[in-house]
């Protein structure tokens, strides 16, 4: 099968939750390996449950699924499987969310989560040439004190973590709840991002920018409810890590054909395309590109712009950005 230009192009993935890359087959295998009981007999039963009314319904199933992850080896295997799969989509740079608060309350050591994932990143760099790292995620429905405790636990890995992120149920949990945590991470030299404007209002995007001082916004699609905010995001070049298939599965948009990806791109925003939680939402990064392109009638130039934006938005230094953009030019020359 010949690949389309967008499928063949080198790409960055900036919004993927490692726990959300857990495929049904691996979930069942880990349940057996760790003797964790789950209420599904086989992968088909699990897949049949992937039908969500909203973010909250998804999160409940997603959190239940994570209960099979227990050991450093599990986190290695999970991360390795995702990176190998991303490599098949010609992803060359990955910035992946990882959520210790999803695991440490079950007695999983903080180090097992981090060391397992980091070792898989080290191996993927050698095996596939994939660069990137970990975005330490925080659960936004938990308290700032709990988030500060996560940061204290992360101190020994401080130099190996790329960025701080914020995820979980958005409504009622505004970014400003985490001001101190973000101040601390900024002092450590971490990059900063936060989920905002997925289900929550445009004000949450403004807070993430003005109070947490994030460099980019995860999702952010609800910015469209505020024309002033759309203009600001365009003028300031704030990237959005958009996840089209996720947005349809979680009913942020009724269908891909109604997604605002193309309008935001035409408004001059630095929109990027990502997969969020691929087995739950029905596709890895290439599927997000090709299905969006088909549903929205994206031109080749628009698709290329989205790919290019991934490298513009990545938390990489200027030399690496130049190399990535050069490699993209070579693989897919500008029109
Ligand atoms: O799309 C999401 N939103 C919030 N939290 C999440 N955790 C995994 N995916 C998501
Ligand atoms: Zn997400």
From TrEMBL:
Q: How is the cofactor bound?
A: Binds 1 zinc ion per subunit.
- Entry cofactors: Zn(2+)
Give start and end of each Adenosine deaminase domain: 10-329
Q: Which reaction does it catalyse?
A: adenine + H2O + H(+) = hypoxanthine + NH4(+)
- Family matches, as InterPro entries: A_deaminase_dom, ADE, Ado/ade_deaminase, Metal_Hydrolase
The EC number on file is 3.5.4.2
GO (cellular component) term, any one: cytosol
Q: Which NCBIfam families match?
A: aden_deam, PRK09358.1-6
Q: What is the lineage of its organism?
A: Bacteria, Pseudomonadati, Pseudomonadota, Alphaproteobacteria, Hyphomicrobiales
Q: Which Pfam families match?
A: A_deaminase (PF00962)
Name of this protein: Adenine deaminase
**Active site annotation, chain numbering:** 198 (proton donor)
Q: What does this protein do?
A: Catalyzes the hydrolytic deamination of adenine to hypoxanthine. Plays an important role in the purine salvage pathway and in nitrogen catabolism.
Which family is this protein grouped under? Belongs to the metallo-dependent hydrolases superfamily. Adenosine and AMP deaminases family. Adenine deaminase type 2 subfamily.
Enzyme type, top EC level: hydrolase
Keywords of the record, alphabetical order, are: Hydrolase, Metal-binding, Nucleotide metabolism, Zinc
Q: Which Gene3D superfamilies match?
A: Metal-dependent hydrolases
Q: Name one GO molecular function term.
A: adenine deaminase activity
Please name the source species: Vineibacter terrae
Where on the tree of life does the source sit, at the highest rank?
A: Bacteria
Residues reported to bind substrate: 277
> Where does this protein hold Zn(2+)?
15, 17, 195, 276
Swiss-Prot/TrEMBL GO biological process terms: adenine catabolic process; hypoxanthine salvage; nucleotide metabolic process
Keyword field contains Metal-binding = yes
